[in-house]
């Protein structure tokens, strides 16, 4: 693990994000090689054009191979941006929504890890062999709160975080020291900003 390259990936509904790259989550499969290599992932004998449109809203991102394929594309883009070798061990860091973290973390970790075996694919014509050696999962939004330790002393019930995304939002409340940091009042929900602001604007 000491030689593994740490890459953080945000598996959003609208976009995949790494430290240096972002692209839409659309994925179009082709049986034959497209006319251009741009944004093309080749894996398992099939070709995928990455970044065309967006994924539909889905609670279980492990239900299809789409987010795994998008993860491979994200890793390739990040390695290329860093000028790293295309053969690498990866320590993957990712997040899960607050409400599903406890339920989904084991399944999502296995989905990304794939038993830690090397995976070969091509992205934009470059051959990659990556080994996802470790997967670390975190509740979405916690990093933002923990960079400001004073927020942890806020009175119970006070909003700490409102993360507005394209189709979902994350809302995190402070708890007292005897409460779990995540409970039923911490949630992700499907909506747009205008509705969220109307519903929660008086609390923030």
Can you describe what's shown?
The chain has 204 residues and is of the alpha+beta class. It has 4 helices and 12 strands. The chain has helices at 66-82, 101-113, 142-146, 193-200; strands spanning 5-11, 15-17, 22-24, 27-30, 40-43, 46-50, 87-96, 118-123, 126-139, 159-164, 168-173, 187-190. The strands form 2 sheets. A 9-stranded mixed beta sheet has the order 3-2-1-7-9-8-5-6-4. Strands 10-11-12 form a 3-stranded antiparallel beta sheet, with no helix packed on it. Strand 8 and strand 9 form a beta hairpin. The radius of gyration is 19 Å and the shape is globular. Residues 177-204 have low confidence and may be disordered.
Largest sheet features = 9 strands, mixed
Secondary-structure-derived class? alpha+beta
Unreliable segments (pLDDT under 50, ≥5 consecutive)? 177-204
Number of β-strand runs: 12
Report the radius of gyration as a whole number of Å.
19 Å
* Helix share, percent: 10-25%
Strand content: 35-45%
> Main sheet: which strands, in order across?
3-2-1-7-9-8-5-6-4
Q: Element order, helices and strands?
A: EEEEEEHEHEEHEEEH
Mean pLDDT: 80
User: In one word, what is the shape?
Assistant: globular
Question: How many alpha or pi helices?
Answer: 4
User: How widely separated are the two ends?
Assistant: 41 Å
